[in-house]
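Lab channel / #folding
Pinned by the channel admin:
"Please post every new chain as: sequence first, then the structure tokens as a reply. Keep commentary short and put observations after the output so the thread stays searchable."

First post following the new format, from NK:
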Amino acid sequence: MHYPEPIAKLIDSYMKLPGIGQKTATRLAFYTLDMKEEVVNDFAKALLSVKRDLHFCSICGNITEEDPCEICQDTTRDRSTILVVEEPKDVMSMEKMREYRGLYHVLHGVLSPMEGTGPEDINIASLLQRLHDEAVEEVIIATNATTDGEATAMYLSRLIKPAGIKVTRLAHGLAVGSDIEYADEVTLLKAVEGRREL
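Reply from TO:
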């Protein structure tokens, strides 16, 4: 059975989202059809607003409505420390913790030879420029504990250390409440490497 064109287009649009297959897209499309018109209008406005009203901070690369972003403008933050993350959502996760008071730098990806992503494809050049222009004492690398995240961390470390700036890496290992028997080898290795004295 062929769907009417508006529903078919909506299903195709939903399928462009990550993790959404044919069945889920169809269910979402019919759910949208049953929504009140003002709710659909608000949803459409929110989608357009994300594309029109947000851009990347010219300093750190985080998403923002104003440039520079709130964090870069905040004079109470520790300007001697920059925490490097892969994506803007990682900044939001770190900020929820309410403990880190330094600055950020968003790479917008990681080095991935398999996908053809090199140093020129992510936000590395502006990080190096910041390190040259600002009085940074420590760079904390907070890329994910994946092969590409580790490779990116090592690459950045080799670029930054010759400038005499301390480079640290977030600790990785066992999650709180997890059992050792269910952890994979890499997680266990990182947990042993990141051990500390009690």
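NK: The chain has eight helices and six strands.
TO: also worth noting, The mean pLDDT is 92.
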